[in-house]
Design a protein that fits this description.
- Helices cover 80% and strands 0% of the residues.
- The chain has 3 helices and no strands.
- The longest helix has 33 residues, at 9-41.
Length: 76
């Protein structure tokens, strides 16, 4: 079937949206699957190290935001 002759512009948009949604759902599921597989391969010590590094990054971002705040007492 030749879609170029049987579809209007609106139908192309609808078909594209459906395909994009299906691909998005597929890759999301695939990503969850790969995360689970990776976690099963890591040792407890490796998981702790990853979590520790993530916490350091979060705290560094929070300190940076707090440091950049104005101290004049005026509201923005």
């Amino acid at each position: 079937m030749d879609l170029s002759r049987s579809c209007s512009a609106a139908e192309y948009v609808i078909i594209g949206a459906v395909i994009d949604k299906n691909l998005s759902e597929y890759f999301s599921a695939l990503g969850r699957k790969s995360v689970k597989a990776r976690l099963q391969q890591l040792t407890k010590k490796e998981r702790q190290e990853i979590a520790r590094n993530a916490a350091k990054v979060r705290w560094a971002k929070a300190k940076k935001r707090k440091k950049g705040k104005r101290t004049t007492g005026r509201k923005r």
